[in-house]
Amino acid sequence: MRFSKFPIFVALIFSVSTPAFVYGVDERYDKCTPFDCGNVTISYPFWGNDQPEYCGHPGFKIDCDDQHKENSTVLIDIMSFKYKVMGLDLPSKVLKLARTDFLDSICPNRYVNTTLNDSLFIYTSNDEIATLLYNCEPSQSHSENEFQCPSREAYFTTLEIQGNGSEEGRCNVSVVVPVLMNAVKRFVAYALSVSQIINEGFEVSWIIDQDKCSECVKSGGRCGYNSTTEEFSCFCPDQAYSEACPSPLEPESPANEPTIAIVKGMFASS
Ligand SMILES: *[C@@H]1O[C@H](CO)[C@@H](O)[C@H](O)[C@H]1NC(C)=O
Ligand SMILES: *[C@@H]1O[C@H](CO)[C@@H](O)[C@H](O)[C@H]1NC(C)=O
Ligand SMILES: *[C@@H]1O[C@H](CO)[C@@H](O)[C@H](O)[C@H]1NC(C)=O
Ligand SMILES: *[C@@H]1O[C@H](CO)[C@@H](O)[C@H](O)[C@H]1NC(C)=O
Ligand SMILES: *[C@@H]1O[C@H](CO)[C@@H](O)[C@H](O)[C@H]1NC(C)=O
Ligand SMILES: *[C@@H]1O[C@H](CO)[C@@H](O)[C@H](O)[C@H]1NC(C)=O
Ligand SMILES: *[C@@H]1O[C@H](CO)[C@@H](O)[C@H](O)[C@H]1NC(C)=O
Fold this sequence. Notes:
With 270 residues, this protein is α+β, with helices and mostly antiparallel strands. It is built from seven helices and 16 strands. A hairpin with a 2-residue loop joins strand 1 (35-37) and strand 2. Mean pLDDT is 85; it is low at 1-21 and 257-270.
Protein backbone atom coordinates (compact mmCIF):
# COMPACT_ATOMS: atom_id res chain seq x y z
CA MET A 1 0.00 0.00 0.00
CA ARG A 2 2.73 2.44 0.98
CA PHE A 3 4.52 1.92 -2.28
CA SER A 4 1.53 2.51 -4.47
CA LYS A 5 0.73 5.82 -2.77
CA PHE A 6 4.22 7.22 -3.07
CA PRO A 7 4.28 8.18 -6.78
CA ILE A 8 0.93 9.95 -6.50
CA PHE A 9 2.23 11.96 -3.58
CA VAL A 10 5.37 12.96 -5.51
CA ALA A 11 3.35 13.87 -8.60
CA LEU A 12 1.10 16.09 -6.50
CA ILE A 13 4.00 18.03 -4.97
CA PHE A 14 5.56 18.40 -8.38
CA SER A 15 2.51 19.88 -10.05
CA VAL A 16 1.81 22.25 -7.17
CA SER A 17 5.32 23.63 -6.63
CA THR A 18 6.69 23.79 -10.17
CA PRO A 19 6.23 27.23 -11.68
CA ALA A 20 4.91 27.37 -15.20
CA PHE A 21 8.02 29.06 -16.66
CA VAL A 22 10.11 25.92 -16.13
CA TYR A 23 8.52 24.51 -19.27
CA GLY A 24 9.62 27.42 -21.40
CA VAL A 25 12.83 28.36 -19.64
CA ASP A 26 15.33 30.46 -21.61
CA GLU A 27 18.10 28.20 -22.89
CA ARG A 28 20.81 30.71 -21.90
CA TYR A 29 19.58 30.74 -18.28
CA ASP A 30 19.66 26.96 -18.28
CA LYS A 31 23.12 26.56 -19.84
CA CYS A 32 24.85 29.16 -17.67
CA THR A 33 24.33 27.34 -14.38
CA PRO A 34 27.52 27.66 -12.26
CA PHE A 35 29.40 24.37 -11.94
CA ASP A 36 32.05 22.88 -9.70
CA CYS A 37 35.43 21.73 -10.92
CA GLY A 38 37.16 19.95 -8.06
CA ASN A 39 36.73 22.36 -5.17
CA VAL A 40 36.48 25.47 -7.37
CA THR A 41 33.08 26.86 -8.39
CA ILE A 42 33.02 28.25 -11.91
CA SER A 43 30.66 31.16 -12.48
CA TYR A 44 30.70 34.51 -14.30
CA PRO A 45 33.01 35.98 -15.56
CA PHE A 46 34.46 32.44 -15.77
CA TRP A 47 32.89 29.87 -18.06
CA GLY A 48 33.98 26.77 -19.88
CA ASN A 49 33.67 23.08 -20.60
CA ASP A 50 30.14 22.40 -21.89
CA GLN A 51 28.97 25.98 -21.51
CA PRO A 52 28.49 28.25 -24.51
CA GLU A 53 30.77 31.28 -24.78
CA TYR A 54 28.00 33.69 -23.73
CA CYS A 55 28.10 32.35 -20.14
CA GLY A 56 31.20 34.40 -19.37
CA HIS A 57 33.70 36.93 -20.53
CA PRO A 58 35.89 35.88 -23.50
CA GLY A 59 39.15 36.28 -21.53
CA PHE A 60 37.94 34.02 -18.72
CA LYS A 61 37.49 30.66 -20.39
CA ILE A 62 38.48 27.84 -18.11
CA ASP A 63 39.21 24.24 -18.82
CA CYS A 64 38.22 21.60 -16.29
CA ASP A 65 39.80 18.21 -16.96
CA ASP A 66 37.08 16.20 -15.21
CA GLN A 67 34.17 17.91 -13.48
CA HIS A 68 33.31 14.82 -11.50
CA LYS A 69 36.67 14.23 -9.86
CA GLU A 70 37.54 15.77 -6.51
CA ASN A 71 41.10 16.49 -7.66
CA SER A 72 40.35 17.74 -11.15
CA THR A 73 42.49 20.56 -12.50
CA VAL A 74 41.18 23.95 -13.55
CA LEU A 75 43.21 25.68 -16.24
CA ILE A 76 42.97 29.19 -17.64
CA ASP A 77 44.69 30.60 -20.69
CA ILE A 78 46.29 34.04 -20.34
CA MET A 79 48.22 35.47 -23.30
CA SER A 80 48.33 31.99 -24.87
CA PHE A 81 49.89 30.42 -21.78
CA LYS A 82 48.16 27.93 -19.49
CA TYR A 83 47.94 28.52 -15.75
CA LYS A 84 46.55 26.21 -13.12
CA VAL A 85 43.80 27.85 -11.05
CA MET A 86 44.56 27.08 -7.41
CA GLY A 87 41.89 29.27 -5.90
CA LEU A 88 39.11 31.58 -6.98
CA ASP A 89 37.51 34.13 -4.70
CA LEU A 90 34.56 35.81 -6.35
CA PRO A 91 33.76 38.48 -3.70
CA SER A 92 37.32 39.84 -3.68
CA LYS A 93 37.88 39.06 -7.42
CA VAL A 94 41.17 37.27 -6.70
CA LEU A 95 42.50 34.33 -8.64
CA LYS A 96 45.43 32.26 -7.42
CA LEU A 97 47.42 30.87 -10.33
CA ALA A 98 50.44 28.67 -10.87
CA ARG A 99 52.42 28.23 -14.04
CA THR A 100 51.83 24.80 -15.56
CA ASP A 101 55.33 24.53 -17.05
CA PHE A 102 56.93 24.44 -13.58
CA LEU A 103 54.59 21.87 -12.03
CA ASP A 104 56.78 18.93 -13.02
CA SER A 105 60.17 20.54 -13.09
CA ILE A 106 61.82 23.79 -12.18
CA CYS A 107 63.88 23.40 -15.35
CA PRO A 108 61.41 23.89 -18.22
CA ASN A 109 62.11 22.91 -21.82
CA ARG A 110 60.95 26.23 -23.12
CA TYR A 111 61.53 29.59 -21.46
CA VAL A 112 58.49 31.87 -21.23
CA ASN A 113 58.02 35.07 -19.22
CA THR A 114 54.78 35.48 -17.29
CA THR A 115 52.69 38.17 -18.96
CA LEU A 116 49.20 39.17 -17.96
CA ASN A 117 46.66 40.71 -20.28
CA ASP A 118 46.61 43.97 -18.36
CA SER A 119 43.19 44.95 -19.59
CA LEU A 120 41.85 41.96 -17.63
CA PHE A 121 44.21 41.20 -14.73
CA ILE A 122 46.58 42.95 -12.33
CA TYR A 123 48.92 41.54 -9.70
CA THR A 124 47.85 41.88 -6.09
CA SER A 125 49.96 43.43 -3.33
CA ASN A 126 50.81 39.94 -2.05
CA ASP A 127 52.99 39.28 -5.09
CA GLU A 128 56.53 40.13 -5.94
CA ILE A 129 58.33 39.61 -9.21
CA ALA A 130 61.11 37.06 -9.24
CA THR A 131 63.53 36.21 -12.03
CA LEU A 132 64.84 32.75 -12.75
CA LEU A 133 68.24 32.75 -14.43
CA TYR A 134 69.17 29.74 -16.55
CA ASN A 135 72.06 28.50 -18.63
CA CYS A 136 74.65 30.01 -16.33
CA GLU A 137 78.36 29.49 -16.64
CA PRO A 138 79.53 27.28 -13.79
CA SER A 139 81.05 29.00 -10.79
CA GLN A 140 83.26 27.77 -7.93
CA SER A 141 81.25 29.32 -5.12
CA HIS A 142 77.71 28.20 -4.41
CA SER A 143 74.97 30.44 -3.13
CA GLU A 144 71.63 29.80 -1.42
CA ASN A 145 69.63 30.89 -4.45
CA GLU A 146 71.30 28.47 -6.83
CA PHE A 147 69.58 25.36 -8.15
CA GLN A 148 70.64 22.67 -10.58
CA CYS A 149 69.17 21.98 -13.98
CA PRO A 150 70.27 19.03 -16.14
CA SER A 151 72.04 21.34 -18.54
CA ARG A 152 73.62 24.03 -16.40
CA GLU A 153 73.37 26.04 -13.22
CA ALA A 154 70.39 28.26 -12.51
CA TYR A 155 69.45 30.92 -9.96
CA PHE A 156 66.37 32.30 -8.28
CA THR A 157 66.53 36.06 -7.79
CA THR A 158 64.27 38.78 -6.45
CA LEU A 159 64.98 42.37 -5.48
CA GLU A 160 66.33 41.19 -2.10
CA ILE A 161 67.75 37.83 -3.10
CA GLN A 162 70.68 38.36 -5.43
CA GLY A 163 73.23 35.72 -4.51
CA ASN A 164 76.59 37.40 -4.78
CA GLY A 165 75.40 39.57 -7.62
CA SER A 166 77.57 38.06 -10.35
CA GLU A 167 74.86 35.72 -11.74
CA GLU A 168 73.32 38.14 -14.15
CA GLY A 169 76.37 38.23 -16.40
CA ARG A 170 76.95 34.48 -16.31
CA CYS A 171 73.48 33.38 -17.40
CA ASN A 172 72.00 33.85 -20.83
CA VAL A 173 68.30 33.19 -20.14
CA SER A 174 66.03 35.03 -17.73
CA VAL A 175 62.40 34.16 -16.98
CA VAL A 176 60.08 36.51 -15.11
CA VAL A 177 57.83 34.71 -12.61
CA PRO A 178 55.55 36.35 -10.06
CA VAL A 179 55.66 34.71 -6.62
CA LEU A 180 54.01 35.27 -3.25
CA MET A 181 56.01 37.49 -0.90
CA ASN A 182 55.08 35.16 1.89
CA ALA A 183 56.66 32.22 0.04
CA VAL A 184 59.88 34.21 -0.50
CA LYS A 185 60.03 34.87 3.27
CA ARG A 186 59.79 31.14 3.89
CA PHE A 187 62.49 30.49 1.30
CA VAL A 188 64.79 32.89 3.14
CA ALA A 189 64.01 30.96 6.34
CA TYR A 190 64.94 27.69 4.56
CA ALA A 191 61.35 26.45 4.79
CA LEU A 192 60.71 26.23 1.03
CA SER A 193 62.70 25.22 -2.04
CA VAL A 194 62.73 27.27 -5.24
CA SER A 195 60.39 24.79 -6.87
CA GLN A 196 57.97 25.06 -3.94
CA ILE A 197 57.93 28.87 -4.09
CA ILE A 198 57.04 28.82 -7.79
CA ASN A 199 54.38 26.16 -7.34
CA GLU A 200 52.70 28.04 -4.50
CA GLY A 201 51.67 30.35 -7.31
CA PHE A 202 50.74 34.01 -7.26
CA GLU A 203 47.63 36.13 -7.12
CA VAL A 204 45.91 38.22 -9.72
CA SER A 205 42.86 40.35 -9.40
CA TRP A 206 40.48 40.69 -12.34
CA ILE A 207 39.50 44.21 -13.22
CA ILE A 208 36.29 43.71 -15.16
CA ASP A 209 33.12 44.74 -13.39
CA GLN A 210 31.49 42.22 -11.09
CA ASP A 211 28.80 44.50 -9.60
CA LYS A 212 26.35 44.05 -12.47
CA CYS A 213 26.60 40.32 -12.01
CA SER A 214 25.88 40.54 -8.28
CA GLU A 215 22.72 42.49 -9.05
CA CYS A 216 21.68 39.98 -11.69
CA VAL A 217 22.22 37.01 -9.37
CA LYS A 218 20.33 38.76 -6.57
CA SER A 219 17.36 39.16 -8.91
CA GLY A 220 17.39 35.43 -9.68
CA GLY A 221 19.30 35.59 -12.96
CA ARG A 222 22.53 34.15 -14.29
CA CYS A 223 25.23 36.35 -15.71
CA GLY A 224 26.52 36.32 -19.23
CA TYR A 225 28.23 38.37 -21.85
CA ASN A 226 27.16 39.18 -25.37
CA SER A 227 30.36 39.25 -27.40
CA THR A 228 28.54 40.73 -30.40
CA THR A 229 27.43 43.82 -28.51
CA GLU A 230 30.30 43.46 -25.99
CA GLU A 231 27.84 43.99 -23.20
CA PHE A 232 26.88 42.32 -19.98
CA SER A 233 23.71 40.28 -20.10
CA CYS A 234 21.49 38.95 -17.33
CA PHE A 235 19.83 35.69 -18.32
CA CYS A 236 16.55 35.21 -16.52
CA PRO A 237 14.22 32.20 -16.71
CA ASP A 238 12.07 33.96 -19.31
CA GLN A 239 14.60 35.96 -21.38
CA ALA A 240 17.81 38.04 -21.31
CA TYR A 241 17.86 41.50 -19.72
CA SER A 242 20.60 44.11 -19.73
CA GLU A 243 20.88 44.34 -15.94
CA ALA A 244 18.63 42.22 -13.75
CA CYS A 245 15.48 40.12 -13.84
CA PRO A 246 12.27 42.08 -13.33
CA SER A 247 10.96 41.56 -9.81
CA PRO A 248 8.17 39.35 -9.07
CA LEU A 249 9.87 36.06 -9.83
CA GLU A 250 10.09 32.94 -7.76
CA PRO A 251 13.05 33.46 -5.42
CA GLU A 252 16.05 31.31 -6.33
CA SER A 253 16.94 28.56 -3.92
CA PRO A 254 20.00 29.76 -1.96
CA ALA A 255 22.11 26.79 -3.11
CA ASN A 256 22.16 28.28 -6.62
CA GLU A 257 23.72 31.55 -5.58
CA PRO A 258 27.44 31.74 -6.44
CA THR A 259 28.51 33.39 -3.16
CA ILE A 260 27.06 30.52 -1.17
CA ALA A 261 28.45 27.97 -3.60
CA ILE A 262 31.97 29.41 -3.23
CA VAL A 263 31.87 29.12 0.55
CA LYS A 264 30.83 25.53 0.14
CA GLY A 265 33.74 25.00 -2.28
CA MET A 266 36.27 26.51 0.09
CA PHE A 267 35.39 24.26 2.94
CA ALA A 268 35.06 21.14 0.84
CA SER A 269 38.81 20.50 1.02
CA SER A 270 39.21 20.78 4.78
C1 LIG B 1 42.88 11.91 -8.67
O1 LIG B 1 42.72 10.99 -7.60
C2 LIG B 1 42.60 9.66 -8.01
C3 LIG B 1 42.29 8.81 -6.79
O2 LIG B 1 42.61 9.46 -5.61
C4 LIG B 1 43.91 9.22 -8.68
O3 LIG B 1 43.82 7.88 -9.11
C5 LIG B 1 44.14 10.11 -9.89
O4 LIG B 1 45.39 9.81 -10.48
C6 LIG B 1 44.14 11.59 -9.48
N1 LIG B 1 44.18 12.40 -10.67
C7 LIG B 1 44.96 13.48 -10.76
C8 LIG B 1 44.86 14.22 -12.05
O5 LIG B 1 45.70 13.85 -9.87
C1 LIG C 1 61.79 38.03 -20.03
O1 LIG C 1 61.78 39.42 -19.79
C2 LIG C 1 63.08 39.94 -19.55
C3 LIG C 1 62.92 41.39 -19.12
O2 LIG C 1 61.87 42.01 -19.76
C4 LIG C 1 63.92 39.78 -20.79
O3 LIG C 1 65.23 40.30 -20.57
C5 LIG C 1 64.04 38.29 -21.08
O4 LIG C 1 64.76 38.07 -22.27
C6 LIG C 1 62.64 37.68 -21.22
N1 LIG C 1 62.77 36.23 -21.29
C7 LIG C 1 62.15 35.49 -22.18
C8 LIG C 1 62.36 34.02 -22.06
O5 LIG C 1 61.44 35.97 -23.04
C1 LIG D 1 43.33 41.22 -23.70
O1 LIG D 1 41.99 41.24 -23.32
C2 LIG D 1 41.15 42.06 -24.15
C3 LIG D 1 39.76 42.07 -23.54
O2 LIG D 1 39.18 40.80 -23.51
C4 LIG D 1 41.15 41.47 -25.56
O3 LIG D 1 40.36 42.29 -26.38
C5 LIG D 1 42.58 41.42 -26.07
O4 LIG D 1 42.59 40.77 -27.33
C6 LIG D 1 43.47 40.65 -25.11
N1 LIG D 1 44.83 40.77 -25.56
C7 LIG D 1 45.58 39.72 -25.87
C8 LIG D 1 46.95 40.04 -26.34
O5 LIG D 1 45.18 38.57 -25.77
C1 LIG E 1 80.75 35.79 -6.83
O1 LIG E 1 80.91 34.57 -7.54
C2 LIG E 1 81.86 34.62 -8.59
C3 LIG E 1 81.82 33.29 -9.33
O2 LIG E 1 82.10 32.27 -8.48
C4 LIG E 1 83.23 34.93 -8.03
O3 LIG E 1 84.16 35.01 -9.08
C5 LIG E 1 83.16 36.25 -7.29
O4 LIG E 1 84.38 36.50 -6.67
C6 LIG E 1 82.07 36.25 -6.23
N1 LIG E 1 81.91 37.59 -5.71
C7 LIG E 1 81.79 37.83 -4.41
C8 LIG E 1 81.60 39.28 -4.06
O5 LIG E 1 81.81 36.97 -3.57
C1 LIG F 1 72.80 30.22 -24.04
O1 LIG F 1 74.02 29.54 -23.99
C2 LIG F 1 73.94 28.17 -24.41
C3 LIG F 1 75.28 27.54 -24.19
O2 LIG F 1 76.32 28.39 -24.57
C4 LIG F 1 73.53 28.16 -25.87
O3 LIG F 1 73.40 26.81 -26.32
C5 LIG F 1 72.19 28.85 -26.02
O4 LIG F 1 71.82 28.92 -27.37
C6 LIG F 1 72.26 30.26 -25.44
N1 LIG F 1 70.92 30.79 -25.44
C7 LIG F 1 70.64 32.06 -25.71
C8 LIG F 1 69.20 32.46 -25.63
O5 LIG F 1 71.51 32.86 -25.99
C1 LIG G 1 23.55 39.44 -28.45
O1 LIG G 1 22.94 40.61 -28.87
C2 LIG G 1 22.35 40.52 -30.16
C3 LIG G 1 21.83 41.91 -30.57
O2 LIG G 1 21.05 42.44 -29.53
C4 LIG G 1 21.26 39.45 -30.15
O3 LIG G 1 20.69 39.31 -31.42
C5 LIG G 1 21.86 38.12 -29.69
O4 LIG G 1 20.85 37.14 -29.57
C6 LIG G 1 22.55 38.28 -28.37
N1 LIG G 1 23.23 37.03 -28.04
C7 LIG G 1 23.08 36.39 -26.86
C8 LIG G 1 23.87 35.16 -26.68
O5 LIG G 1 22.35 36.78 -25.97
C1 LIG H 1 41.29 23.24 -3.35
O1 LIG H 1 42.07 22.17 -2.92
C2 LIG H 1 43.46 22.40 -3.02
C3 LIG H 1 44.19 21.12 -2.69
O2 LIG H 1 43.43 20.28 -1.88
C4 LIG H 1 43.84 23.55 -2.10
O3 LIG H 1 45.21 23.80 -2.19
C5 LIG H 1 43.07 24.78 -2.53
O4 LIG H 1 43.33 25.85 -1.66
C6 LIG H 1 41.57 24.50 -2.56
N1 LIG H 1 40.93 25.64 -3.18
C7 LIG H 1 39.88 26.25 -2.64
C8 LIG H 1 39.28 27.36 -3.43
O5 LIG H 1 39.42 25.94 -1.55
